[in-house]
Amino acid sequence: MEMVPIEETQLVPKEIESAAEEPRVLCIVQDTTSSKTINERLTLNLPASTTVNKLYEDVAHKAGYVNGTFCLGWVNTGDQAPLDQASEMSLVLSGFEAGKKNFLQLTDKDGEQPQIASDESGTADSSGLDDSSQDRFIGPLPRDGTVGCSSDYSSPSYSYSSILNKSDTGYVGLVNQAMTCYLNSLLQTLFMTPEFRNALYKWEFEDSEEDPVNSIPYQLQRLFVLLQTSKKRAIETTDVTRSFGWDSSEAWQQHDVQELCRVMFDALEQKWKQTEQADLINQLYQGKLKDYVRCLECGYESWRIDTYLDIPLVIRPFGASQAFGSVEEALQAFIQPETLDGPNQYFCERCKKKCDARKGLRFLHFPYLLTLQLKRFDFDYTTMHRIKLNDRMTFPEELDMSPFIDVEDEKSPQTESCTDSGAENEGSCHSDQMSNDFSTDDALDEGICLDNTSSTERVLKPKSSLTFELFSVMVHSGSAAGGHYYACIKSFSDSQWYSFNDQHVSKITQDDIRKTYGGSSGSRGYYSSAFASSTNAYMLMYRLKDPSRNAKFLEVGDFPEHIKRLMQREKESEEQEKRQREIERNTCKIKLFGMHPVKMMMVENKLEVHKDKTLREATEMAYKLMDLEGVVPLDCCRLVKYDEFHEYLERSYEGEEDMPMGLLLGGVKSSYMFDLLLEIRRPDQVFQPYKPGEVMVKVHVVDLKSESIAAPVSVRAYLNQTITEFKQLIAQATGLCAETMRVILERCYNDLRLLSVPNKTLKAEGFFRSNKVFVESSDSTDHQAVFTDSVLWKLLDRHGNTIRLFVSLPEQSPGSLANRTSCPKASADSEDSLDGAKGSRKSVEAILEESTEKLKNLSLQQQQQQSSSTSDSQKSSEHSDFEHIESPAQEPDAASQPSQTENCTRAASDTENQFPSEERSDSDVNNDRSTSSVDSDILSSSHSSDTLCNADSGPLPLANGLDSHSITSSRRSKAHEGKKEKWDTTEEDSGTDSEYDENGKIKADSQYLYFKAEPYSQEDGSGEGQKCLLVHVDKRITLAAFKQNLEPFVGVPSTQFKVFRVYANNQEFESVRLNETLSSFSDDNKITIRLGRALKKGEYRVKVYQLLVNDPEPCKFLLDTVFAKGMTVRQSKEELLPQLKDQCKLDLSIDRFRLRKKTWKNPGTVFLDYHVYEEDINISSNWEVFLEVLEEPERMKSMSQLAVLTRRWCPAQMKLEAFREVVLESSSVEELKEKLSELSGIPLENLEFAKGRGTFPCDISLLEIHQDLDWNPKVSTLNVWPLYICDDGAVIFYR
């Protein structure tokens, strides 16, 4: 096709230009009236002489809108005025260009969305199909390679509006919930079955018996009434699926139609017990067949009678290359007997020997409604994929079933006498029993029809009464991986065929039915591929042609009274829904925010207001919605335009209180690009006008003296203002002095910038719609320092990185002071501590007294060096980063003042969290001394951060245990920095890092990090509060330093407790990477502390399970322990012995148990004593291992050996013996057989073995063990297919 180039390289087919005498105009219209249509484009190719008026008509028809309820305008031009609908001017004269694309947009008119056309012909025809093709639309539009029900077809004219109007066929469709097309096709088939529908209508629901929501028959009844009387095009099935007990996720799973049919019928039978409909399903759908085996020597026959609801028909027999061509062929194959001969001979009870026999099925009775399931889904054993068979299989419109009835029984006296003799539909008979076993009671079992007639009539009747007519074809389109179901159903009212394809119902012809026979396109291999997609019949429903029984549908006038009442209720509900929808179309829904003055938090709501309500009325609605009645007066509130994402107040609506909300918000829309804020003022305040173009600035005032950051004050400024003008504005709002003011802009998270150029504009400094600044104005010398070295910067940096955590402490406190002694020192530094007495132990009281004296001396030195001090704390602005040093005057007696919390008050880093608290920070101090209050409970061990470091003495241990106190983390002095050991900060494979350096010394953070904690009580169910901490901490702190800071509260060294992070669903995970920071934590995260030894570097937590091979539950948990890298298996066994004795009461000797690999529940490799963890055995965190108790000394000495678990199968006794272990020196099958022969006494030539399947202990049914296992595989070694035994622990059955 020749193309005509136009602007911007767009091409228009030349035919469009020359198709008619006059040029044509290509219009592309974008519907912007709702989010659902924003991506749709309507294309119209019109003659250039078409008028604008006619264009509006064509767009209305194409989009399905009422003409005159929308506007058309140009896209991306300065001209915002819509095209004049009344204009009779041609398109060319109105500015349209012929031969080019003209882009238009369809918009709301007067703030109202377009009205949807009620006439069905006005619905959108986006697919480009003409009317006739829509009528004939029966299945999915071809979309190759698509999988999945909901996307495997596209509707030609579906939009929300199409649900509202009934199809011209008079039938109502069903909405596809997600993947419920299979359900829809079944429901429509049942609805179009007169006998089922009429019986369902006769049943009356009793309110007193159960909840109508859960009643399947009631919800089906409602659905059928709606399908018969609703004016909608399609109705929802959610109430029906809810009655099945499905949640919404199950609607997303594609189920099998046949499986669903059975589930639904079972549910109906359960509900209809003791009602008139009790046996309805059986009367309509249930048939009977005989499963028999007949001896070919004596004629003896054993049989049983089975019932069926559907007949499964094979499309292509297993292994055959040719499929059955018709349903009749498949039915003949279904009843074709097979001969049991050779090794399959049948043991005849009469002949008392194995004889040739004939085995097969015979139909005894066909149901009134016959269901044939075509087995199109199969499994391809070459590709190991589920596949769909798309072969052609024809089915007649009228099916004569008389050839398939029990013909043999009619001719043969032996079979004629085989009745249900009372032994639960099972029996055996031969010619001797002929006269005794027959009775008229068996007419249902043996008969052909439901009438209880004589045997002669029963034999003759099939010839004339077994013609069935086809009335429903359920079609599957797609592949074995997924697809779409729909139904072709013949109406018994007018004998017309209809396609029920979810919400679309259309007339179809016999030709369309023939298209569902199937037949793959092109030449395919032996099996169709798993993704070969095709459309073909999957399930067929026939009805017996019997004028005496064939029912007609109940008309509305003939409905029972309870159905008339139900119909009236549904009609009222539908009208109410219609009215509600009309209100919805005229309701503006917009997010509403507001700062609640009592809750002191931003509250979010959704304001739903009719477009004709005024701003004044909307403000009153918002006032009530925010629950402010009685809290603030209504006249202290107003609605303003707000951008929640940027926290920006866009504009206020002064003087527009009586304007309708539809105009104010720009029309009724599904979503708005802005929100509303309900602003509240104090009675003595006046509302500021907010003008478009202003920027909003949240100003936080910083007080360096109290180290506090105030709540924000809002200031509005213009981007063209200078920094000097901006400072004046802030000075007016806050009362601070503009001369000494420092303004810091936080551009993004924690990115702080000092605004120091007076004449620079706010725009040049990077201000945007919403901004956050910190201001400080004082006469301190801090403003002379470089900003990044200033106290202000450090305070803001700390503020930006501080998070709040809730920490639950262990319930058991570690003990009282009276019965505790100090722990011996482990570090080199500590040996010369405490007056240089090496290794000496002092009483707790002596150490406390001594540490108190040192604290007092240190505090006095600090006081002399620093001029500024407060009543209860000391600060050093040059060397101490906001450090808190207790005043000696307020130092209580170490052992007697548990209420020291009150003396430790100081200002928090921000005003929102001011409380008496404990603060802790890693910092540089004069002479690198750190100070701490002294508390009374126990002494920490030397592996604690609670040490005082002096330049001339070793660390001094501190006690802990007070609920809240003030302490500063220690850092070694510069004099000791040379001595400080380095540690490896790389992560170990185990996922843990050591808290110690190589000499066992604690690793401490080398930078200032903030920590502050205070106790709070968390009430539990017993009424007693659990011991908890509210911790404010710099999230850059490492887990190791965080644990050290927690030591005083937990009461044990950080090595003796573990930290667990608690997630939203209360799941706990241990945090073990000690060198990682808390950066992954956020405000209000929860942490639980549990006592127990924390892991060192190279250590792994291990769960030990006992392997009990002959117990019903072979896997039993014993204990948690710790293994270390480099440890041998024997060393780990030695460590386990005392733990097993204490915790599990297992008294074992080291040579009488082994450790072995655990994979899920399967035992694996036996670990030998000399194996080393991490070298020979891979180990990981939360590793699991089996412990196996041995009855004799270990026989596994080398890795070349193989230990297998064997179990003898005794067919004669029908039992399996206990497991016994066999140790092989090689992977030879011959050696395995020799060992098994030795073990059992079975001669080698008679011994057979098979590998067990599945998870240990490889349980198997004793009835199926013969055929389910691969006995005596033809291999010489164990490590090849099909055995693949390469590791210890494999299960071998032998016989």
TrEMBL record:
SUPFAM superfamilies documented for this protein: Cysteine proteinases, Ubiquitin-like
Compositionally biased tracts (Low complexity): 859-874, 930-946
Biased composition, class Polar residues, residue ranges: 115-131, 414-435, 813-824, 896-916
Region: Disordered, residue numbers: 111-147, 405-435, 813-844, 856-999
GO cellular component labels: cytosol; nucleus
Compositional bias annotation for Acidic residues: 986-997
A GO BP entry: protein deubiquitination
InterPro entries referenced in this protein's UniProt entry, alphabetically: Papain-like_cys_pep_sf (IPR038765), Peptidase_C19 (IPR050164), Peptidase_C19_UCH (IPR001394), Ubiquitin-like_dom (IPR000626), Ubiquitin-like_domsf (IPR029071), USP (IPR028889), USP47_C (IPR045578), USP_CS (IPR018200)
Entry-linked PROSITE patterns: USP_1, USP_2, USP_3
Residues of the USP domain: 172-545
Record field: compositional bias (Basic and acidic residues): 875-886, 917-927, 975-985
One Pfam family here: USP47_C
One GO MF term: cysteine-type deubiquitinase activity
Protein name as annotated: Ubiquitin carboxyl-terminal hydrolase 47
Originating species: Cyprinus carpio (Common carp)
